[in-house]
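Here comes a specimen:
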Amino acid sequence: MVNIVDTFTRMYGRSPTEAELGAMIKMKADIEAYENRKLRPTVDLMTKSRESQKRAQEAAKKRQLKKGISINLRGWTVNCLLLADMSKQDISNALCITDKDVETLIRRYKLPRADTLKPRKYVKGKSNAN
C-alpha cells in the first residue's frame, strides 16, 4: 500500500485523493486476483438465484398437471365447492377462512380440478391408525 502512495507522489508531485487511492487499491486487488485464482470474485449469487427461479417457473408452466393428486382436507373441500360453482368469497365465508387462504389453495393445487383424490384419512374403509 505504501509503495502505491509513494510511487504516485513521486510521479505526480502530490498525494493521491481518496477517489484515486480507491481506484489504485481496486486495480491492485484485480491484479492480485488475476494472478491468484482463489482471490477471484465469484459470480453474483443473487443474480444466479433469480435466473434459476425464472427458469424453474417457466419449466413448471410447461409441465402438465399430475393426474389424481392427493391434497389436504381443506384443499379438497375448496375444490368441491369451486366445482359446485361457488365464488371464492362464498367459500371463504362458508369455511370461516380468509380470501387469501382460498387464493393460496387455488394457486397451490391449481384448483378447480376434477382429478383430485379424497384425503387419505377420510377415505371410506381406511382407518387413521397404523
Q: What stands out?
A: The radius of gyration is 31 Å. The longest helix spans residues 18-35. The CA atoms of residues 32 and 38 lie 10 Å apart. The mean pLDDT is 83.
